[in-house]
Amino acid sequence: MAVPQIPMAMNDTGMSPQPPSQPLYQKEPGMALFTMLCIILLISWRWSVNKLVSRAVSYMLDTVPKKFRAWTYLLDGPGLIQQGFDRSNGAPYEIVAPDVRYVFVSSKEQVMELDRAPDTTLSLQAASKQMLQPIYTMHGFNWFDRRGTEGVGFVRALRVRHSPVYPTIVKLVVMSNAISFFGKELGTNEKFLISALDYVEETLMCAEIVKLLPKKLAPLIARRLTCQKAIYDALIPIATERCEERERAKLGHPVPKHWIMETAPRQKPWTPKRIVHELIAIWFGSVHALSTTITFAIQDLCLHPEYAKPLRDEAERMYAEFEKTGQGLPLLDSFLKESARLTPVESMSMRRAATQPFTFADGTKLAVGDWACTPVRAIMQSAEYYPSPLEFNGFRFARPDNLPSTGAPGQNFNFVQPEPSKLVDVSQAWHVWGMGRMACPGRYYAVAVMKVIMSQIIMNYNCHLVDPDASRWFTWRSTMLPKKDTMVVFTETKH
């Protein structure tokens, strides 16, 4: 039977359409497989890209804020440390800076752990080395990571009525320290004093730049420091003479005693170069901390003038005896301590850099290069240790029997601490000088200098801030620094 022919319709062109072709998979099985493989690869590629993009976005969302926070630490270190303390409820917490990770501990148990940790694992020296970059800022002083491996002119200086208080106090501290450290010959040498004055600021700036820039650029920055060479060149002859005296003393010759030689190691005596390096390091620390603390104390005296009279009365009664013994002036001691509590130079203390991995008893870990420290400012302003912690009470640390018996109406000199204490003390609530076996041994000298300068100002001047409402300090990392343009009017008292 013949198959009937089906007539084909014409298309729009007037031509018959072509019969439908065979499916691709019937005609080209290899091409079909290739196409399917391309589709699978395309889907896989898009999935991988999406995954990579997702990971990149997640990394940015996680990392960028951390990096940003690390850099904000430079400008708001005290604030970030305080926030961490407030949220931690006594537990350890971390803050990451651009160049180091800090782990803060504040409980009594962990502060004791920090103090007991061996120098070979948690090192104060290594932390100080990282802070100050002495190889660049102290004439090549590359100290080891482990410890042990090796009243003039005040009235004249304040004769200016409107005085930028911080630069003025720095000059007074430099003059006092120069005579105490090096004797009157260098202490009255104007060229040396200018270099010694500028050196502190140069060191602070250079150390910060070196920490944040690539190490290859560090020598270029160090060459800009001219003061350190001037100080080194002035001190080398003195140190050489001291070493010669040390050798003569071994032969039984009488020689004068000098504090730097008395405290130097006996078994491995220091060379003149090493002695100068030690003096430069001590010089920086004493000038920086003393001038900042005294400046804030003067500002507090201006803001709380009700303390001027009892402090002046005490100084006039007791200063002569204080000059002889270095003891006394308890009201001034308390006033200085309260000022340092509310406006401390530093917001961290007990710095230790991990030279080996370390783990606290609760499991908190430190990697090599991390720091462990205590949030000293937050602790000193905690209600756990200080009643009315943010209120200035200049005599809160004094003994009740030392408090003024009378005062003007509205003055409150009541004792508010559970027990009296001194500025030189160290305790769980007072880490200004560190803690335990590495508490600062120079704190007795520092407090004596503070009392000398403050007493001279209190006895001879009334003072007030030109603009009491103006901002008086700025912060960098964990440090609070007085602004140079804060003006104080000093008016001579009438005797």
From TrEMBL:
<dbReference type="GO" id="GO:0005506">
    <property type="term" value="F:iron ion binding"/>
</dbReference>
<keyword id="KW-1133">Transmembrane helix</keyword>
<feature type="binding site" description="axial binding residue">
    <location>
        <position position="440"/>
    </location>
    <ligand>
        <name>heme</name>
    </ligand>
</feature>
<dbReference type="GO" id="GO:0016705">
    <property type="term" value="F:oxidoreductase activity, acting on paired donors, with incorporation or reduction of molecular oxygen"/>
</dbReference>
<dbReference type="InterPro" id="IPR036396">
    <property type="entry name" value="Cyt_P450_sf"/>
</dbReference>
<comment type="similarity">
    <text>Belongs to the cytochrome P450 family.</text>
</comment>
<dbReference type="GO" id="GO:0016020">
    <property type="term" value="C:membrane"/>
</dbReference>
<keyword id="KW-0472">Membrane</keyword>
<keyword id="KW-0812">Transmembrane</keyword>
<dbReference type="GO" id="GO:0020037">
    <property type="term" value="F:heme binding"/>
</dbReference>
<keyword id="KW-0503">Monooxygenase</keyword>
<dbReference type="GO" id="GO:0004497">
    <property type="term" value="F:monooxygenase activity"/>
</dbReference>
<keyword id="KW-0349">Heme</keyword>
<dbReference type="Pfam" id="PF00067">
    <property type="entry name" value="p450"/>
</dbReference>
<keyword id="KW-0479">Metal-binding</keyword>
<dbReference type="InterPro" id="IPR002403">
    <property type="entry name" value="Cyt_P450_E_grp-IV"/>
</dbReference>
<dbReference type="InterPro" id="IPR001128">
    <property type="entry name" value="Cyt_P450"/>
</dbReference>
<keyword id="KW-0408">Iron</keyword>
<keyword id="KW-0560">Oxidoreductase</keyword>
<protein>
    <recommendedName>
        <fullName>Cytochrome P450</fullName>
    </recommendedName>
</protein>
